[in-house]
Amino acid sequence: MSLSEDISALLTADQVSVHPDQLAVVSKDESTLPGVTPLAVIWAESTEDIQKVVRYCYEQDIPITTRGAGSALEGSTIPSEHAIVLDLSKMTSVLEFWEDDLQVKVQPGIIYDNLNNNLKQYGLFFPPSPGGSGDIASVGGMVSTNASGIYSVKYGGTKEYILELEIIDGTGKLYKIGNRAVKRSSGYNLVELICGSEGTLGIIASITLKLSGLPEGTLKTAYKFENELNAAKAVSEICKYGIDVAAIEFLDKKVMEALNKLKDYGLDETPALFLEFHGSTETVNSNKELAGSICEELGGLEFELKSEQNPWEIRHYITDSIKYRKPGYTIIRNDVAFPISRLPDMVEYCYKLSADNDIMIHTFGHVGLGLLHALILADQSNISEWTKALHVNDEIIKKAVEFEGTISGEHGIGLGHKNLFELEHKNSVELMRKIKSQFDPKNILNPSKIFDL
Predict the structure, then answer these.
(1) 303 phi and psi angles, rounded to 5 deg
(2) Angle 8-13-19 from CA coordinates, rounded to 5°
(3) What percentage of the chain exceeds 70 in pLDDT?
(4) How many C-alpha atoms does 304 have within 13 Å on its Cβ side?
(5) Listed residue (400, 405, 376, 406) closest to 388, CA to CA
(6) Spatial contact of 412 and 72, defined as CB atoms under 8 Å apart
(7) CA 174: distance to chain centroid?
(8) Which residue among 207, 228, 274, 360 is least crowded, i.e. fewest CB within 10 A of its CB?
(9) Measured between alpha carbons, how far is 297 from 425 in angstroms, rounded to an integer?
(10) What letter does residue 79 receive in the DSSP assignment?
(11) Dist. CA 262–CA 214, nearest whole Å
(12) Which CATH class is domain 215-315?
């Protein structure tokens, strides 16, 4: 029997496909890395389906790449060679909801925005917004990469909200890890071990999350600065004095230029901080006043758009504005993180690399967490330019490690930054390899991602 016939016998015929068009869809993700065509794509609809597929692949030594929405940015959902793709996008149910406990249990394929739309009627939400991809990002994928976003400075990242997971290891065995207690001190924290492991240790079948109450109100504002140093100092001071800010976003002068070119916003082309506050009217006004006074002491000026739009409304156009500066060019991403005091140094380093290599670089990010995106524009069809741009990207990541930071603050490692993983983690990678072998003795779960065995 063929692979598709074997899987059809285990599940149903409409849960497996080897059609070239469907294989092409799951061969790549949102990264710029080349795709790999899998042997087949299988759509699981239950925990039992996942177990059946993993047991079969374990017996046949077939690698498995798990996929949710396919929105990964570093190649973590690109199939391995001679692998099958296990697609969890049909597992979208809310399994249980405990309103009084502010908790919900979901399947991994549920989309972030859909979950929060369901919770809104109860005055609750799952806070770690994955930026502009909330309408496509699956909760399972967020767990896989420990995703964070614009509100993580106040609410934290994904791992802070995971109470319990059901996972299937590389042999097909089901484990329940964690529990519904919000505070616990009992044994190894396997929940946090799985969070951020990018499908290399286990396949997530269900996720129990704690939730937060929707804020009574929100207030958004923005300040422009003469230079990156003053903007960084403002962020540091706001955090140091414990001002309750929900989001602090940094946009460099090149991003402001790009936004003007995209939609003629009339922005001053200088660095800016976008701030958001959550709480009662009295609370948000008080916190805005405190944060504003710090910004003003450092030369910051509050600004509005000439269209009278709130500046935050243009935050979602950053990536598009960069992309359209050079139509036909491709964006190379990174998501380095480092101590916030290093923000001016990192931005200046990016500018120097840009000038020295004649490569366009824009920087922005969730700087309340010390996280910066440096987006590089390059022509992928020009081998020389593309190679140079990839080298520049590596140099930015190396500089983050030199600044005692990390090569990835939220996107994960996947294939994109695997070459620099040991630069950050050094000999502790050996411990990770041993952990991997315990969960996945035949190395069939997303092999070759993060590091090689």
Answers:
(1) -140, 160
(2) 100
(3) 98
(4) 6
(5) 376
(6) yes
(7) 26
(8) 360
(9) 39
(10) P
(11) 33
(12) alpha beta
Tokens of 344: 């001016």
The second-level CATH assignment, the architecture, of 94-213 is: 2-Layer Sandwich (3.30)
**Topology match between the domains 3-87 and 215-315:** no
Which letter, b or e, does each residue of 103-125 get, where b requires 16 or more Cβ atoms within 10 Å of its Cβ? bbbbbbbbbbebbbebbeeeebb
Answer for the pair 15, 44: CB distance below 8 angstroms, yes or no.
yes
The percent of the chain in helix, strand and coil, each rounded to the nearest 5, is 40, 20, 40
Percent of the chain topping pLDDT 90: 81
Question: What sign has the CA pseudo-torsion 181, 186, 192, 194?
Answer: negative
**Among candidate residues 162, 219, 215, the one with its CA nearest the CA of residue 191:** 162
Instruction: Indicate the range of 46-50, 82-86, 177-181, 367-371 predicted with least confidence.
Output: 367-371
C-alpha 45: how far from chain center: 25
In the numeric block, the tokens 């995106």 are attached to 373
| pTM attached to this predicted model | 0.93
How far is the C-alpha of 321 from the C-alpha of 263, rounded, in Å? 8
Using one digit for the tens of pLDDT, what is the confidence trace for 366-410?
Answer: 988 899 999 999 999 999 999 999 999 999 999 999 999 999 999
How is the chain split into domains, by residue range? 3-87, 94-213, 215-315, 326-439
pLDDT of residue 340: 86
Q: Is the pLDDT of residue 349 over 90?
A: yes
Architecture category of domain 326-439 in CATH: 2-Layer Sandwich (3.30)
134-160 pLDDT per residue, tens: 888 999 999 999 998 889 899 999 999
| Short-list 43, 36, 49, 46, CA closest to 68 | 43
Residue with the two structure tokens 């006074």: 293
Written as six digits, the tokens of 255 are 């991003």
Residue 40, token pair as written in the block: 């087949």
- What's the rounded Cα separation, in Å, for the pair 90 and 107? 9
Using CA of residue 414, residue 415, residue 419, residue 420, what is the dihedral sign? negative
Specify the CATH architecture of the domain 3-87.
Answer: 2-Layer Sandwich (3.30)
Spatial CB neighbours of 13, under 8 Å, sequence gap ≥ 6: none
